[in-house]
Amino acid sequence: MSQNLMHASIEEAQKFIDRHVTTVAQAGMRQRYHFMGQCGWINDPNGLIYFRGEYHLFFQFNPFSGFWGKMYWGHAVSTDLVHWKYLPVALAPSEFYDDHEQGGCFSGSAIEKDGKLYLLYTGCSNQGTGLRQTQNVAMSDDGIHFTKYAGNPVIVPPSDVPQDCFRDPKVWEHEGTYYLVCGAQREGHAQALLYCSRDLLHWEYKNVLFESRGEWGNMWECPDFFQLGTKWVLLCSPIGAGERKVVYFVGDFDYTTGKFVSHTNDEIDWGLDFYAPQTFLAQDNRRIMVGWANEWQWMKDWKDWGPTYQEGWCGSFGVPREIEIRDDGRLSFVPVSELQSLRGDRRSVSELHVTQNQVVDIQAGDGVSFEMSLVIDMLRTRASSIELSLRKGEGKQTTCTVDLAHGLVLVDRNNADGWSQGISKSPLNVFGKHQLDVHMYSDQSSLEIFIDEFTNVHSLNIFAPSSQNRIEIKAIGGEAVLKHVLSFGMQEPRGE
Ligand code: FRU
User: Fold this and answer.
1) 106 lines ligand 1 (CB under 6 A)
2) Per-residue DSSP letter, 310
3) Which of 161, 183, 383, 389 is an S-S bond match for 478, by CB 3.0 to 4.6 Å?
4) Residue 274: which residues within 8 A CB-CB, separation 6 or more?
């Protein structure tokens, strides 16, 4: 499925989706409970907001093919972050500032003002002087149909910022003033720029909120900035920062200077497929993050986007995660409690002894779509490492090694499915710990592994058939004592 439609309108895009949605829905690699587009390509989550009793999720969308192209904004709503209802495409490239073939309506965010829903997004165009990125506004009375503001663009790149390195506005309000942070580059270094406005339409440049001196790359995609408890958090997806691809900074922010000073940073997700997350406040003030379960071609570990383009689609989002701040200033990313409504058949073992080099089978749902957790009893475990084999079968498997001797987590998908490649690796602090918890979410084509109180996360895609459905645990170098081995089959969200 691929079609080159010059400037296809929202209605044309919608017709195309309606023609393909049924076929794509039957494709073998479709996720069972993770969010996907109805067809075509998706990347970054955009415009996340709780508005008039519903969660709105917009997303970077090329409905016409399983590859990135000219970008639209797809749209879906939910009352529980689990069951999603698709709405018509919200934004289509149409104006001189957002109509380039390799551009369109790029990422951005949403905010409510006077009962209306406003979208702030990057328009990517080329009027003969190279790719140019500007910030633009679209608004809606009903939260479904959007009108682009006649005065767009509302922010153009500063003269010393390359005009193709100025994107992804994230907006918020504080005491009657609107603020926006966006990614930029100056003198080859990444920056997050801060703007402010009284009406969302007229913006004033305030300051460089935070910047790289080279160690954090040359451009930050999708910066997000918010208060969490007494601290402030900046999330971004840096380009050119070596191993680091999706990071957080925790620190202090002063509205009068517009400066952020950070004292703690770490990786949001060490896995091979997690990028461009965006956060929003849930109805009950939880800070929730949704990320794109993929990565770009230019990234170190990129292999390819998997076989799903042959099925007419590509891309899903990781499970929504609640961000919490801990006493040591680090963040944890806990899958939202709403996911529990999908829990099906439950299995539990209160204590499991796995002797040296023994391989123990574990049951969790159908071995493809499941949630599973366990706790390693560090006081009684003598094993130097514990290996969890997931989606095993047909001579293939993905292996998560919790290396207690070296303080490492490794997730190896080199023999996962004959398609994916790579090993993700993170440091693991085991010193002085009495126990270590592991939580997993598995779906048709993804694995998400949360270790050490949800501070150490690995998300990755694997494109394994359902016949790869065994789970095994092995202890190396001594016995492992595992407590509370608990699993649930995950049901498909029903209803919409
Ligand atoms: C991040 C990103 C954004 C951009 C969008 C384009 O994944 O590159 O910077 O707005 O994707 O689709």
Assistant:
1) yes
2) G
3) 383
4) 246, 268, 291, 292, 293, 295, 318, 457, 459
